[in-house]
Each structure stands twice: as structure tokens, then as C-alpha cells.
Amino acid sequence: MEDAPLDYQKLLEQIASDVAPLVGSGTPAEYIPALAGVDPDQFGMAIAGLDGTVYGVGDWRTPFSAQSVTKVFALALALAEGGDSLWERVGREPSGNPFNSLVQLEYENGVPRNPFINAGALVVTDRLQTLTGDASSELLAFLRAESANPELGFDAEVAASEQAHGDRNAALAHFMASYGNIDNPVPDLLEHYFWQCSIEMSCADLALAARFLARHGLRADGSRLLTRSEAKQINAVMLTCGTYDAAGEIAYRVGLPGKSGVGGGIVAVVPGRCTIAVWSPGLDAHGNSVAGVAALDRFTTLTGLSIF
Fold it and tell me: How far is CA 227 from the centre of its chain?
């Protein structure tokens, strides 16, 4: 990895220009009514250096529904609070199936393949709820602190929309509970999970909040959230499992740990260097932002920065 300084602002402007023809491509998440009407012709991208300096382009200050991107932060808090015992309840392998698959969960006796598919994220939230007593609020407080944005909050409309259309997640949770892999009452767990997914963040917020993964586990205030080994573990699972069932293709194209969400956001990490957040609501068939993946591809192509 090269050590020469990069002009991040110039780089972002170049990337935005290169991917402009793709902005508006794809379709916003239609199965969550509150997201279906989001204007697809939006694009934002931000880069945060290790020191907290943030650069941005386009709609990088516009809040959007972080959705599954929040799973990274919930996982970090669960590991920080409870340690490696979490991995006894959730695996670390790519699923190869849709993120809300029930079939694979039945084959594997109620133990989800990884913490980023919905079943795995429910287990992580369940563990965090047991450890803290208020999983969603603990997560929001952490994100506010790391992003230095005390205005971050939940979107009640999105949470209600997911609750009203959350039968598949409820089925996953009840199925895992039948195998003894859920400790809290399923209705309580689902409520915290839906609130977690409804958190609104901008690209600037996300890039700042994820810096602990580029800083080998160190929080914004210099305190240690994770060991270097735990930070490496999360980055590894992001690389192999963070972008739904397209993780292999995106690892091939981009070569960075990343986590996407159906709100159109993606956060990516260059360990020891910076974090990147990109947002554009139009999704491909796998649930990843079309313009967002292209922007990350351009980032690694133009800079040569990857973990390989």
C-alpha cells in the first residue's frame, strides 16, 4: 500500500464525474414502502482520514436510512461487550443465498451463516440486548459519539414501515428461538432490530463512525473499543459477507471490506488509511447500490488502495 498523500477532494470529484451516468440506475428498495419513494437521482460520497478530517462530494451531507450498514456497528458493540462467545451463535461464512433466507437456516439448525444476513443480525441484536438492556439506544449513542453528530436519530416512519412488513424477519427470529438461539422475547427483539435499521446517517456520519475499523479498534476519543484482532475479524467478515450474495463479485472488483444497506448506502474500510461512505438509492438485483459499487470500484482503481 502506498504512503504518499492523496488529494481526497480531487479524487472524490473525479469519481463523482466518472459514475454520474449510473446515478439513477437501479431501483430503490420497494419492499419497504418508506424507502420506495426515495428520489433515486441522488449521489453522495465521503472519505474520512484517520485524524477525522472528512472530504465529500454530492449529497454527502444528506441523511438517509442506513439500514443494514448498522449491522457492522451492532456487531462491534456485541464483541466489545461480550467477547468471542458471540461466534458460538453465529457463523462467519458467506451465505450464497438471499439475506432473508429461511431455507439455509433450517439446514443449519438455527445458527445463521454470518452476522450480516438478517438472521445473523437478529442474533447479534439479541446478544446486544442481553448485554446492555437497550440495544437500539446503545447503538444510537455509539454512532452519535463516533460521528460527532448528536443529532443522529431514528426514523419512526421507516421503523413502522419495516414493522408492518416484517413477517419474514419475525419468522427467522421465531425459528431461531425454537432452536434456543434467541434469548429475549421475539417481539422485543424485533422492535430493537427495526429501530436499529431505521437510523438515519449521512455519508459524512458513516465515514466518521467507521473509523475505528481503520484505526485497528481505536475509537474517536482514542480509547480502545476492540482489540486489533477483533477489528481484523470484522473487516474480514465485511469483505466476505458484507454485500449480500454479491460479496464475492464485489470483493473481486473493489478489494475492500464493506457493508451495504438497502437504503443505498455502503461503508468501506482501508485499514490504517481511511474510511469511505457512498450513497445512491438505486439498487441492483442483490440489494447493493449500483452507483455506490461503481464508485468504490473507481476509488480502488484510481488510488491502488486495497487490502490485497
Answer: 20
- Reference 47, options 219, 267, 256; nearest CA is 267
Cα–Cα distance, 256 to 267 (Å, whole number): 10
Distance between CA atoms of residues 105 and 92, nearest Å:
14
Per-residue pLDDT tens over the stretch 23-78: 999 999 988 888 999 999 999 999 999 999 999 999 999 999 999 999 999 999 99
**All cell numbers assigned to 121:** 443480525
Catalytic, 232? Answer no
| Surface-to-core class of residue 163, CB atoms within 10 Å of its CB (0-12 exposed, 13-18 middle, 19+ buried) | middle
What are the start-end ranges of the H helices in the chain?
A: 8-19, 33-36, 70-82, 103-107, 118-132, 135-147, 156-164, 167-178, 186-197, 203-209, 211-214, 228-241, 247-253, 290-303
Examine the residue annotation and report whether 244 is marked as an active-site residue of this protein: yes
Q: 254-283 pLDDT, tens per residue?
A: 999 999 999 999 999 999 999 999 999 999
Q: Which of 90, 193, 289, 290 is catalytic?
A: 193
Helix axes 118-132, 135-147, angle to 10 degrees: 90
Quick: pLDDT tens for 109-155.
Answer: 999 999 999 999 999 999 999 999 999 999 999 999 999 999 999 99
Catalytic residue among 262, 270, 278, 290: 262
- Residue 179 bears catalytic tag: no
